[in-house]
């Protein structure tokens, strides 16, 4: 087995922390600091902080790429990456791939014959993934790799050529290796063990409002889905049979469920495509009838807009490793997320705390963060161990619902094949926040889920005043009263870590 894979398994109890890489559009980690120079595979000990384990079915790197640190243990000290690029070797791997991203499939294929180095770079899967997603918006039939998928779709007579693979010796690249590493790593136990969210079962609506919604605190609710038909019936076969040829949103493309499950079964990449469809209830009305909004979230004031309301509910389906990088939910809404099949790891930070490794623009319109979720765990999760107040974390399993208050940063990763329903909503406790958000000077850049970003504030306010006369004025009066009262500690200032248990999760 190649050295690049063997290095993953060595661990040391007292090891210096690896230096975090500077965040760029495509963050790159110096893997020579994360991987050990030992050839022997060693079992990982429970008290070690470093060292990673690959998934049991993980293959070696497809083209033989090794982390740069391995070059220092090579007798020849020869990197075919540099010799094959010629004068372009001074460019970073990210910049080389950025340039190659302007080429079409045919030109990438020709360039692959120039040298071993160009062969590896031009076969980088994200290049072909972008070509497929840009050109096959009506859906695709995944063929084991993105390159094979593209070739089969546009050059069917050369379909077999798309699957040919040459192993390149002495090719060292942290950036290319990390892409493979993030796609094949097991989630470390220390990334899953912290479970410090408040859990409740059978609480009253008044209890929920008083202790969680009004103070804007997350909570995991148990037993809310017991009567859902979806919890009993929704599995792969049922959904495929029920939905038939209906296509759902998968990133920028539309796919039938049968085709998406084919993709999710075969793919192994650091950012698997996520089925995330806001119109599933309209496309397949039966699905909308097989779940009920939990009683705590029945008040949804955006409903006064009728068909003009922003997107608010989604069916979410994805394989292990898929998920959502750090973000704040749209339009300053709160949300609930119910797991029907599988399990999800959540990491949440309150509005006043930007997660490590995340860089929002000053106006909040854009967020720069690591390429993949696993990359964030590798490079930034450890920093939170030293924080006096830890992020809120949990594993949400089938039958459980998490409440995500407005403004909270959150990351979600599926730990296994998962199916979920999520909805964003506006209640009276959050109405003023939403109105303030919708009337921001740059609202046309920030508002999402609607075709009319410019007039949403006026439409929503007028509809609220017509449907619930005096409500806005009453809420504003209460808000002024609160301002005159002594300021309470924020959640981040008052939360205690005393309930962080030694919860261990396995599946």
Automatic annotation (TrEMBL):
One of its GO terms (cellular component) is nucleus. Transmembrane segments: none annotated. GO terms for molecular function: cis-regulatory region sequence-specific DNA binding; histone demethylase activity; metal ion binding; oxidoreductase activity. Its main location: nucleus. SUPFAM superfamilies: Clavaminate synthase-like (SSF51197), F-box domain (SSF81383). Residues 12-53 are annotated as: Disordered. SMART domains: JmjC (SM00558). Its cofactor is Fe(2+). Residues 24-43 have a biased composition (Low complexity). Residues 12-23 have a biased composition (Basic residues). One of its GO terms (biological process) is regulation of photomorphogenesis. It is found in: Nucleus. InterPro entries: Cupin_8, F-box-like_dom_sf, F-box_dom, JmjC_dom, JMJD6_ArgDemeth/LysHydrox. Residues 282-442 form the JmjC domain. Keywords: Iron, Metal-binding, Nucleus, Oxidoreductase. PROSITE patterns: JMJC. Belongs to the JARID1 histone demethylase family. This is JmjC domain-containing protein. The lineage of its organism: Eukaryota, Viridiplantae, Streptophyta, Embryophyta, Tracheophyta.
């Amino acid at each position: 087995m190649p050295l690049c894979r063997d290095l993953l398994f060595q661990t040391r109890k007292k090891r210096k922390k690896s230096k975090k890489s500077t965040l760029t559009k495509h963050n790159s980690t110096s893997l020579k600091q994360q991987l050990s120079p030992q050839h022997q595979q060693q079992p990982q000990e429970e008290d070690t902080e470093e060292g990673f384990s690959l998934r049991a079915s993980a293959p070696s790197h497809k083209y033989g790429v090794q982390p740069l640190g391995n070059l220092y243990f090579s007798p020849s000290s020869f990197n075919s990456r540099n010799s094959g690029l010629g004068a372009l070797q001074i460019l970073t791997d990210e910049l080389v791939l950025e340039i190659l991203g302007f080429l079409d499939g045919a030109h990438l294929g020709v360039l692959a014959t120039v040298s071993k180095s160009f062969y590896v770079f031009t076969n980088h899967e994200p290049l072909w993934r972008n070509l497929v997603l840009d050109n096959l918006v009506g859906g695709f039939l995944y063929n084991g790799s993105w390159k094979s998928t593209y070739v089969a779709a546009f050059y069917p007579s050369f379909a077999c050529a798309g699957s040919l693979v040459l192993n390149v010796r002495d090719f060292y690249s942290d950036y290319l290796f990390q892409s493979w590493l993030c796609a094949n790593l097991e989630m470390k136990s220390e990334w899953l063990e912290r479970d410090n969210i408040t859990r409740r079962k059978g609480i009253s609506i008044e209890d929920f409002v008083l202790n969680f919604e009004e103070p804007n605190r997350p909570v995991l609710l148990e037993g809310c889905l017991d009567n859902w038909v979806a919890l009993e019936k929704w599995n792969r076969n049922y959904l495929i049979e029920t939905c038939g040829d209906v296509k759902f949103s998968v990133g920028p493309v539309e796919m039938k469920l049968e085709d998406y499950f084919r993709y999710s079964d075969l793919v192994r990449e650091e950012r698997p495509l996520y089925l995330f469809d806001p119109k599933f209830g309209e496309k397949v009305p039966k699905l909308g009838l097989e779940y009920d909004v939990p009683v705590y979230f029945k008040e949804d004031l955006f409903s006064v807009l009728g068909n003009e309301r922003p997107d608010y509910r989604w069916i979410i389906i994805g394989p292990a490793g898929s998920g959502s990088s750090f973000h704040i939910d749209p339009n300053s809404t709160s949300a609930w997320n119910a797991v029907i099949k599988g399990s999800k790891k959540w990491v949440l930070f309150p509005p006043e705390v930007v997660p490590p490794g995340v860089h929002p623009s000053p106006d909040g319109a854009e967020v720069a963060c690591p390429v993949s979720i696993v990359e964030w765990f590798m490079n930034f999760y450890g920093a939170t161990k030293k924080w006096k107040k830890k992020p809120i974390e949990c594993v949400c399993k089938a039958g459980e619902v998490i409440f995500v208050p407005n403004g909270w940063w959150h990351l979600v990763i599926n730990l296994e094949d998962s199916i979920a329903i999520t909805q964003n909503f506006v209640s009276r406790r959050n109405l003023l926040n939403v109105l303030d958000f919708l009337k921001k000077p740059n609202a046309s850049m920030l508002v999402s889920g609607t075709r009319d970003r410019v007039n949403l504030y006026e439409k929503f306010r007028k509809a609220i005043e017509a449907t619930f006369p005096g409500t806005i004025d009453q809420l504003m009066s209460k808000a002024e009263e609160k301002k005159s009262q002594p300021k309470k500690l924020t959640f981040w200032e008052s939360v205690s870590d005393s309930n962080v248990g030694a919860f261990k999760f396995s599946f």
